[in-house]
Amino acid sequence: MGGPVLRRKLILEGPLRTADGAGGFSQSWAALGALWADVTLRSGRRTEAFDVETSLTSYRITVRAAAPNAPSRPRPGQRFRDGSRLFAIDAVSEAGGRGHYLICYATEEGAV
């Protein structure tokens, strides 16, 4: 039995905070590299806040493992980009006992 099929190229992005000069900061995103991934739909739901309906969809995204301190290793608080689609990384765990792959649990938010 083979491993996952990594056929989708995703850009890993990390938050970049810049001081705004008034004691706060602004946040942007910086590309950390491209990773090949297997993206699997887990679940979806509709939610409403302040009279705005949104769709929350959760995914299981499998990527090749990287060393714990490597900048190419996904972490919670980062995100994947696929064109205009954004997948916020909620949690990361090793897949299986060999540690060849990482499983990233991610959420995509979109307008209904």
Q: What's a concise summary of this model?
A:
The chain is mainly β and 112 residues long. It has strands at residues 8-19, 25-49, 52-64, 79-82, 85-95, 101-111.
Topology:
Blueprint: E1 8-19, E2 25-49, E3 52-64, E4 79-82, E5 85-95, E6 101-111
Any idea what the shape is?
globular
Instruction: Indicate the proportion of strand residues.
Output: over 45%
Low-pLDDT segments: none
Q: In terms of structural class, how would the helical and strand content be classed?
A: mainly beta
Query: Helicity, in percent?
Result: under 10%
**Count of beta strands:** 6
| Number of helical elements | 0
Radius of gyration: 16 Å
Largest sheet properties: 6 strands, antiparallel, barrel
Average per-residue pLDDT, rounded, comes to 90
Distance between the termini: 39 Å
Strand order of the largest sheet: 1-2-3-6-5-4
Write the H/E string, N to C. Answer: EEEEEE
Could you name the key traits of this structure?
112 residues, mainly beta, six-stranded antiparallel beta barrel, 68% strand, globular
